[in-house]
Amino acid sequence: MKIGMNLLLWTPAADMSHISVLDDLKSWGYDGAEFPMFDPACSPWGELAKYMDSIGLERTAVTIVSHEANPVSDDPAIRKAGCEYLKRCIDSCAELGATRLTGPLFSPCGGLVGRGRTDDEFKWCVEIMREAAEHAAKVHVSLGLEALNRFETYVFNSQEDGAKMAEAVDMPNFGLLYDTFHANIEEKDVGAVIRKIQKHIVHIHISENDRSTPGRGQVHWAETFEAIKETGYDDWLVIEAFGRAMPEVAAATCIWRQMFETEEQLAREGLAFIRKNIQ
CB of 279 within 8 A of CB of 1? Predict the structure, then answer.
């Protein structure tokens, strides 16, 4: 397994001013960095790729969609905008050298509508995800759909529900991002659900229940890592943690107090925690 660190701990839009963070991740022992890709045109992806190649760091990416580019909107024009947005992100992944694009690709975070998902929304999502996956296959990028907890979306909350979408899309480069923070809220037995949907998991976020240092909270880590190893998962484990340094990120993730000593403490301790548990 490879261990990565999501750069959202430092920034929502990485550029060459963040190469010191990349240098630190490499020196601390990370295999790669995960890039926020909330505006696919905002970062010098090619320059970042060249630099990361020079220091030996791999990369993945994570994105979200907006209300104006929503793959499950009842407006066909907005659904089309959602598909085009995902394609632009995929092309940026190719430029960055990121082999994977993950996140809640299906609807805006926090876009609650006072009801559950409709059959039409599921159908529209299948259509958009399949078109995006077909585009991604051309540039050797895989997609990982992330089910979010019920307080952040109404579309996909449970891992088994996400697996239904993966089965419906039925593309070899389309699967699930399993996030321990969301699973901690929604799943009754994290070990059992990992085993049940194992064939669909293409990416894992290691995220504590308070979004800070993995291992210091209440996620069922023993059961989680036992299932990960038992199923033979052999891909990315990426720490996703949030702080207050970036107001826009703090607001989106509802982080109103300091959850860790320093970014370095979180990154170093989190890496050691993962390594200890995957031995």
Answer: no
